[in-house]
Recover the amino acids of this structure.
């Protein structure tokens, strides 16, 4: 049996009858940049996030950049970020002229540890970027409390967590700004790059809207330095077809996650640590990520057996060569470094079959019986 990490082909076949006419409509009207499809998506995603404004941008990385400049980040300002995340979270901070300050994670959820944030705050701190990793929101209650106490902005990197909730609050509701990615592999994926920023703040919204069009307002007059970073009409048309299915897909992902939990409990046992969902969170399982011993050997064995897996992420950001001048060293963030050595993500997508999941877990059992 072959089990891919992600297979988007079945979803396309199911939606093809709607996607083709939606794309044909864009091309027939020949309005490709910032038209009605983007407007509709911005409105729908903002509403979905219980927020006032949605502003479509070119991708999830630009979304973080634009959010940081949107809150008025200045050169040398410090931004507290997790190290156990995709590169873009910290890359955007440096790209925007800021200094990433890395903090450790809660080992159970893989998300930023609020207790570590307080210790990292200095007079230069401007913002905190919690990442809602793998589809589960970070402890936004604690983070918001710290941010308010120290007058810091909170930018939620929600690239992996559209639809997730924390104590009944949605992504975008508790932060100053939230950023989404619609990269094809995300829970709401375009057929190319796309992203969005979400906020309730009138002033930040206006600034971000200007930032995505070269800082131009009115057109051809520039008071601030912006980007060319827009979500295009073709991608927005596709996302408008997909968006109404998002909640159903989240439910299916949760079902798959529970099925994995059950199979692992029955067949493998405690050698594998299954994902931990806080009882006040709604996890949308962008990834189903377990912790295991002999992780790299397990991955190689599964590959031989036709099971694709991924390591998100093998090298923490504080130890990446590009950030060497920040002066971090091995041992600085022990939980992050441990997670980077133990975490492995199993195939996860709404169309994944129970037989495929059973096969994956049988192969995991086989590996630990031999090793
Ligand atoms: C995917 C992702 C991004 C970047 O999104 P792009 O659309 O690929 O630029 C940022 N942060 C996290 C946590 C991500 O998973």
């Amino acid at each position: 049996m072959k089990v891919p990490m992600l297979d988007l082909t079945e979803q396309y076949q199911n939606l093809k009858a709607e996607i083709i006419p939606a794309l044909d409509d864009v091309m027939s009207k020949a309005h490709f940049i910032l038209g009605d499809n983007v407007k509709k998506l911005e409105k729908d995603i903002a509403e979905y996030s219980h927020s006032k404004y949605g502003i479509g941008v070119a991708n999830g990385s630009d979304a973080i950049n634009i959010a940081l400049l949107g809150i008025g980040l200045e050169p040398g300002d410090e931004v507290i970020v997790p190290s156990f995340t995709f590169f873009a979270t910290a890359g955007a901070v440096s790209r925007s002229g800021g200094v990433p300050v890395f903090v450790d994670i809660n080992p159970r959820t893989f998300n930023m540890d609020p207790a570590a944030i307080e210790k990292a705050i200095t007079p230069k701190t401007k913002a905190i970027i919690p990442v809602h990793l793998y589809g589960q929101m970070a402890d936004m209650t604690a983070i918001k409390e710290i941010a308010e106490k120290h007058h810091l902005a909170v930018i939620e990197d929600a690239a992996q967590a559209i639809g997730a909730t924390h104590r009944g609050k949605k992504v975008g509701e508790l932060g100053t700004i939230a950023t989404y990615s619609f990269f094809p592999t995300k829970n709401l994926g375009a057929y190319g790059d796309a992203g969005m920023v979400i906020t309730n703040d009138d002033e930040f919204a206006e600034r971000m809207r200007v930032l995505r069009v070269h800082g131009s307002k009115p057109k051809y007059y520039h008071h601030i330095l912006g980007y060319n970073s827009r979500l295009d009409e073709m991608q927005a048309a596709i996302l408008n077809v997909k968006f109404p299915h998002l909640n159903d897909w989240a439910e299916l992902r949760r079902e798959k996650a529970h099925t994995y939990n059950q199979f692992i409990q029955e067949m493998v046992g405690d050698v594998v640590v299954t994902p931990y969902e806080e009882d006040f969170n709604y996890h949308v399982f962008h990834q189903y990520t377990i912790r295991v011993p002999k992780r790299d050997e397990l991955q190689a064995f599964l590959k031989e057996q036709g099971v694709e897996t991924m390591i998100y992420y093998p090298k923490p950001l504080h130890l990446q060569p590009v950030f060497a001048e920040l002066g971090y060293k091995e041992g600085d963030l022990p939980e992050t470094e441990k997670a980077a050595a133990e975490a492995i993500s199993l195939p996860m997508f709404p169309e994944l079959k129970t037989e495929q999941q059973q096969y994956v877990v049988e192969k995991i059992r086989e590996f630990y019986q031999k090793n």
In short: Residues 59-61, 85-86, 88-89, 131, 157, 159-160, 181, 183, 193, 195 surround pyridoxal-5'-phosphate (CB under 6 Å). The chain is about 40% helix and 15% strand.
